[in-house]
Amino acid sequence: MARDSLSTKSLLMKMADPIKKFQRKRDIVTYS
Hints:
By secondary structure, the protein is mainly α. It has one domain (about 1-30). Helices cover about 95% and strands about 0% of the residues. It has one helix and no strands. The chain starts with a helix and ends with a helix. The model has no long low-confidence stretch (mean pLDDT about 80).
């Protein structure tokens, strides 16, 4: 159970990371 939630968490982190980078890139474009 604990290992399950941990792998799910890391999977979500892997999915969220490119999204965060994209949003950050978009923010830089918006503010400059």
